[in-house]
Amino acid sequence: MKTRYTNARILCGESFELGSLTVENGRVVEGGEPAAEDRVVDLGGRVLIPGLVDVHVHLREPGFPQKETILTGTAAAARGGYTTVCSMPNLNPAPDTPETLEVQREIIRRDACIEVLPYGCITMGQKGAGELVDFEALADKVVGFSDDGRGVQSEELMCEAMHRVAATGRPVVAHCEVDELLRGGYIHDGEYCRTHGHRGICSESEWREVERDIELAARTGCQYHVCHVSTRESVELVRRAKARGLKVSCETAPHYLLLTENDLKEEGRFKMNPPLRSIEDRKALIEGIQDGTIEVVATDHAPHTAEEKSRGLEKSPMGIVGIECAFPLLYTYLVKKGVITLGRLVELMAVNPRRLFGIEGGIEVGDRADFTVLDLDCRSVIDPSKFLSKGHSTPFEGWSVEAETYMTVAGGREAYRAE
């Protein structure tokens, strides 16, 4: 039996085509003449795009189910329009061997409602130092290698890691942070920090390691992707690397595109790593998504318990959630305001992540049927109490948005449908 999704406005570049999409055995197939037994789903003129892909999420399981589980995290992702997410390795056990990775993969097989692609660690125990993992043993089971949450401090160790990872064909996906430059900071070292008596994180702590790693990528030929860039210097370093023809890419997150240090409040929901930066940094990030320097927007969805995030800016753990509201926010405050087009937003959140990370799925004939149906005529207010994620800490609480996910189809199966 085929399922026909009819009366859809299918996004083609920057325009819409009214049409239908047919799915059979989990794949997009030619439409042809409908048969009597076919299932028909009328999408009511809603917008259909390739399924969103988030290359940077924290699903917290195994190890921290009080914060999130693969069951709740993927349900939240499906509600946000995502058909694939890539799960970061700060877990217990850390996925640093095939055996420890299998603990996570077994839960994914049991509980995930969309595709979850795990990362393997760069170092044993995901410590950012010490012994490197056996990259070859993990390569066919992971989407890439990362020690996200920790920067690899040793240049020699990172160089050796890139040499070995390059041989596997997987990317190194780096959290860039120079530990000795942190100096106990926890928000951006800017005006708000100084006037409110906080300790700051300088921009150099990020861009200095980006600069180092780009040169190592040039030396080793490794595919290199920078996590959550937040500074103008990082954007410019990646821009220059691309001009040199290096296999370098980067992502930023919705909160860095929409907020700055001027929006900070004395609440844990404004604390993340890297921190919210300056107006000038935000401007550079916007220019980066406009000119293609920044190719991916990822959420860095990082749930914590309500008690943990109730401790204010200084004492709350780093991390916010955003996977359920990322697309509505960016559509409302970037697309509707003419900052970028809808086509560019879909590139950043669906097309480019697939291309860079070799992820399957889409809406062309032969693709695994991964698509998102959007209602772009729906106004609502972001209410974390209604999130499917266990994490409710977001700086966007109370923001008005003008889009929502109506349906998410992952691998031909409906993972989410709005009530």
Question: What would you note in describing this structure?
Answer:
With 419 residues, the chain is α/β, with parallel strands linked by helices. Helices cover 29% and strands 20% of the residues. It contains twelve helices and 19 strands. The strands form five sheets. Strands 1, 2, 3, 4, 5, 15, 18 and 19 form an eight-stranded mixed β-sheet that branches. Helix 4 packs across helix 6 and helix 6 (204-220) packs parallel to helix 7 (232-243). The protein is globular and about 65 Å long.
Which key phrases capture this entry?
four-stranded parallel β-sheet, 12 helices, alpha/beta, 419 residues
Short overview:
By secondary structure, this protein is an alpha/beta fold. It has helices at residues 70-79, 98-111, 135-138, 155-166, 191-195, 204-220, 232-243, 254-258, 279-291, 312-315, 326-335, 342-357, and strands spanning 3-12, 15-24, 27-29, 39-42, 47-50, 52-57, 82-87, 115-118, 172-174, 187-188, 200-201, 224-226, 248-252, 296-297, 371-375, 380-381, 400-401, 404-410, 413-417. A hairpin with a 2-residue loop joins strand 1 (3-12) and strand 2.
Biggest beta-sheet profile: 8 strands, mixed
Structural category: alpha/beta
N- to C-terminal separation? 25 Å
Q: Percentage of helical residues?
A: 25-40%
Chain-averaged pLDDT: 97
Strand content is 15-25%
